Amino acid sequence: MKIAIVGLGIIGGSYCKALKSHTKHTVIGINRTLATAQKALDTGAIDLIGTPESLGDADITILCMYPQACLDFLRENGRYIRKGTIVTDAAGIKRAICPQMKSLAEEFGYIFVGSHPMAGKEKNGFDVSDADLFMGASFIITPCGAPQEAVGTLAKLAREIGFGTVKITTPEEHDRMIAFTSQLPHVLACAYVLSPSCPNHNGFSAGSYRDVSRVANINAKLWSELFLENREPLIEELQELNHNLTALFDAIKANDKETLSALLEKGHRVKQALGE
Q1: Looking at the structure, do residues 81 and 122 belong to the same domain, yes or no?
Q2: Same domain, yes or no, for 33 and 149?
Q3: What is the pTM of this model?
Q4: Which of residues 111, 139, 169 is at a domain's end?
Q5: Counting Cβ atoms within 10 Å, is residue 26 exposed (0-12), middle (13-18) or buried (19+)?
Q6: Cβ–Cβ under 8 Å, residues 6 and 65
Q7: Are residues 180 and 164 in the same domain?
Q8: pLDDT in tens, 195-252
Q9: Which helix (H) or strand (E) holds 75?
Q10: Is residue 3 classed as helix, strand or coil in its secondary structure?
């Protein structure tokens, strides 16, 4: 197939490199900054530099941009996409964009299948993209009414480039679970490093500090958009976290060893039961 990747940052660049490393598909790279596209071409991550007009040659188009940017791109360039082509995204939210994505697909005649690669790094940009970024990771598909054949084609492609799990779900379930598994840890990490103690951690920190603070190295513009577009499920998770933190805070403040031990043991049992 000919596969167009729009947006050659860490996710788009990794898609390109994974496709070139693990498949025989032809990769068309489209990027706002030509220098990045040229770098992708020079390093063999893509077969050719494309333009929006090149979308007519693609069998699959993968949009690797901010959620709103994906919508804006399709509104402006959807007319170039060949009818019947599969178009997917890589956005970390789904409810806020899937209805509009589906509407644009119906308007222009292509097939939209929502997706979300559950992989990344703390750094951004093409230079940190990696052909093996997706190895063993989960690939979430939100079909949004797409034909089963199109969903199957996308799932097969995901497995070809290394994804270990393909999860098919609804936009609503996606956003509810992502609020817990991805967005809440980013909020927690940022809140953690805002402590005045953080700058003095060297010499006092080890694995616990690294584990909790790792994702605080955040793309503020992107994650602000993701948090606010998914604010209802995220607020529910934050309320639950606040409840649990308050219970621990109260037990420590009251010097209540019995309650504190019970709360800690409850957390231990939950984690142990998951076998992780």
Answers
A1: yes
A2: yes
A3: 0.91
A4: 169
A5: middle
A6: yes
A7: no
A8: 999 999 999 999 999 999 999 999 999 999 999 999 999 999 999 999 999 999 999 9
A9: helix 67-77
A10: strand
